[in-house]
Amino acid sequence: MYKFKQFFQLFRLKAYSFLGLVWAKRFQSKTLTLNNRKFKITDSASFVAMYLDIFGYQGYKFETKKVEPYIIDCGANIGLSLVYFNQLYPNAKIIAFEPDPKLFEICKTNTAYFQEKLKLYPYAVWNEETTLYFESEGADGGKVEKEKIEGEIINKEISKNTIEVKAVRLQKYLNQRIDLLKIDIEGAEITVLEDCRDSLHWVGNLFVEFHSFENSPQRLGQLLSILENAGFRYYIRSEGVWSKKPFISRDLAAGMDIQLGIWAYRI
C-alpha cells in the first residue's frame, strides 16, 4: 500500500521518470535526471522518500526577504536538499556536512554546478572536535554509534560498515544570523543541540529529525525544552514509524520506535 501511495504521489507531481524507482531493487547506484542535470543516487527507496518530502511536500520551504539567505545543512546525504535550497534561493550561501565518505563524494558531484555558493565538509557534527565511530548504511540511515551517543564507551565488535570519521563542533558555526538550520543526523541531534542551546538565538528556522531507538532512553522532552528555551514554537509530524495499536505493539523502523520531523520557527 505504501509503495502504491508513493507511485501516485510521483505521478501527481509529473515525476514520470522516477515511477520505476518505487519498486526498484534497493542499494543499487543509478544516475537520474533532476532539474535537467545528471543526479547520482545510491538507493532508489531512500531517494523516492526524500524526493517526495523535499520536492513534493516542500517540507524545507521557508520565506525570507534576504537576497543571500544563510543555510546550514547537517546530514546532506547525496545532496537532494542542497539542490532544493539552491533552486529555492539561487544566491543562498550554504554550509553542509556529510560524514559518510561515499555519500560525500556523490553529494559533491551532484552539487558541483553551484559549488561557489556551497561549502561542503566530510565531517560529522558533534559537541566537540573529535573522531567518532560512524556506521555507514549506504543510503539515508548512516549514524554515529549508539553507545557514543548515550555517553557510554563499551567494548564491542566493530561491524564491517563502521568507520572512523572526523567530527566538528556545530556550535562554533552558529555565530551569525542563520535563516535555516537543518539537522538530520540519525540520533545525535540532542547531543548536538544541547551543546548549541546558548547559540540558537542566531537561528531563524530550525528543522530537526528526532530519533528514538528501541531500548534507549526517550529524550523528546529534553529536545523540546531546548527549543522552547530558545524561543521557538514548533510543529511535529511523525516520519516513517507508525503503530496502529501502540498499547499492544509498537512497530520499529531501522531500530527506531519513534521518528519525528520537528519544524521550529519564530513568530
UniProtKB/TrEMBL annotation:
KW Methyltransferase (keyword) present = yes
Which molecular-function annotation in GO is an example for this chain?
methyltransferase activity
**UniProt domain Methyltransferase FkbM: residue ranges:** 73-234
Q: Which InterPro entries match?
A: FkbM_mtfrase, SAM-dependent_MTase, SAM-dependent_MTases_sf
For this protein, the record's Pfam families field holds: Methyltransf_21
**Residues of the signal sequence?**
none
| Sorted UniProt keywords | Methyltransferase, Transferase
Is Transferase given among the entry's keywords? yes
Q: Name one GO biological process term.
A: methylation
Q: What is the official name of this protein in its record?
A: Methyltransferase, FkbM family
Provenance organism: Bernardetia litoralis (strain ATCC 23117 / DSM 6794 / NBRC 15988 / NCIMB 1366 / Fx l1 / Sio-4)
- Taxonomic placement: Bacteria, Pseudomonadati, Bacteroidota, Cytophagia, Cytophagales
